[in-house]
Design goal:
Layout: E1 5-8, E2 15-19, E3 24-28, H1 31-37, E4 41-46, E5 48-51, E6 57-61, E7 66-71, E8 77-82, E9 92-95, E10 106-111, E11 127-129, H2 131-138
Parallel strand pairs: 3-10, 10-11
Antiparallel strand pairs: 1-2, 2-5, 3-4, 4-9, 6-7, 7-8, 8-9
């Protein structure tokens, strides 16, 4: 399977090509991801992402260590990028729902696993990282 993937927002105003896309997906249950996606946020990391036309691309600093990209026309959440200094700076994950072909991926990690609402539970075993563990990785809120 190729590690190149394409994707787009709901309205098609923002399209992208992602290179070096991992076959390992993650899910996040933090307050920001739940508010941003109205549920859990599934994403897959990539080595790079390029946008065909950035005129409808919005970017917001969502925490002290990350930013999120979205379509300014339809609101679709497109990516999450680490901005904190350190070995993860620049790591970008595209949202699973925006991939043109989301097949062939395996869910391997749950971020903020202790913040997962009682209304859902994911099947299978995977690494679970708590809020305290994430905050220790990035130095607080």
């Amino acid at each position: 399977m190729s590690n190149e993937r394409t994707g787009r927002c709901m309205c098609g105003a923002v399209t992208y090509s992602a290179s070096g896309v991992s076959s390992e997906a993650t899910v996040c249950h933090c307050d920001m991801c739940r508010r941003w996606s109205s549920g859990m946020l599934f994403a897959v990391s990539c080595e790079g992402v390029s946008f065909e036309d950035e005129s409808a691309l919005g970017v917001v600093d969502s925490s002290a260590w990350a930013q999120r990209g979205f379509c300014t026309k339809c609101g679709t959440g497109l990516f999450y990028r680490i901005t904190a200094e350190g070995p993860m700076k620049g790591v970008t994950s595209v949202t699973l729902g925006t991939l043109d072909d989301p097949t062939g991926l395996t869910l391997v990690k749950e971020w903020f696993s202790d913040k997962r609402p009682d209304v859902y539970e994911l099947a299978g075993d995977r690494e679970c990282v708590t809020e305290a563990q994430v905050l220790a990785m990035f130095g607080g809120g």
